[in-house]
Amino acid sequence: xxxxxxxxxxxxxxxxxxxxxxxxxxxxxxxxxxxxxxxxxxxxxxxxxxxxxxxxxxxxxxxxxxxxxxxxxxxxxxxxxxxxxxxxxxxxxxxxxxxxxxxxxxxxxxxxxxxxxxxxxxxxxxxxxxxxxxxxxxxxxxxxxxxxxxxxxxxxxxxxxxxxxxxxxxxxxxxxxxxxxxxxxxxxxxxxxxxxxxxxxxxxxxxxxxxxxxxxxxxxxxxxxxxxxxxxxxxxxxxxxxxxxxxxxxxxxxxxxxxxxxxxxxxxxxxxxxxxxxxxxxxxxxxxxxxxxxxxxxxxxxxxxxxx
Length: 308
What we know:
Layout: E1 2-7, H1 17-25, H2 29-37, E2 41-43, E3 46-47, E4 59-64, E5 82-86, E6 90-95, H3 112-118, E7 143-149, H4 152-163, E8 168-176, E9 183-187, E10 190-192, E11 200-202, E12 210-218, E13 222-229, H5 236-243, H6 258-263, E14 271-279, E15 286-290, H7 295-307
Parallel strand pairs: 7-14
Antiparallel strand pairs: 1-4, 2-3, 2-4, 5-6, 6-7, 8-13, 8-14, 9-12, 10-11, 12-13, 14-15
């Protein structure tokens, strides 16, 4: 166990203990609530409950458990995962559904880095042990094209490119209803959901998040939409379209209609990383890669087209 002393800054005055301490420590509110429930959070020397309010200038004393042992990469073949391109610096992956990019606590399914290890593909050793070579991520339930760094130089260059937003990230999403206007930009900050720690939401004071979209095909109950991401927040497309009341079809976590999802035989969000373009880290030439729709997403479109 380790103890930390944290003065409460002015910016957190009046905030709940769980929300404020989560921001200060980079933990989830659930984790902070568990610490408070076990008596490991003191506010000015007295045990603090998760819903107590912070006061600027107060002193928080937090007893933290020792960090868990690092998650290990397990070399395991991944069914359906394809390497679209590989050279000395990069590997371009077509990620199937149900596959996480790298191991994490609580995830027991297949991973991209585990699949690459099983295939004998060497990747960069930069980054945390469980996500070496990873320069961006896709949700486990999102399919499509992504890049992994194979050389240390490529890792550095690509991490900077994603940070500086010089990567062209193109997605296709089937969203419920008909967005109006049919072409536009969603500029709304995103942060952890205030009540449900497992998802995200548009939140005042969240991280700046910008999504550009254009409807390319309209059906009775849904619209196929081409999307360009200016930023790359976790669940960004799903959160932004849910906030517009046009959630991704099949995305029950963010308010999609379960009846429509069943009719289209979808067990996950209709969201696909369609294209990825960037300056190649070796020589700066522009390269672009695309991924075709997997069977479940293509089948859902066929059903909608047959009904139109």
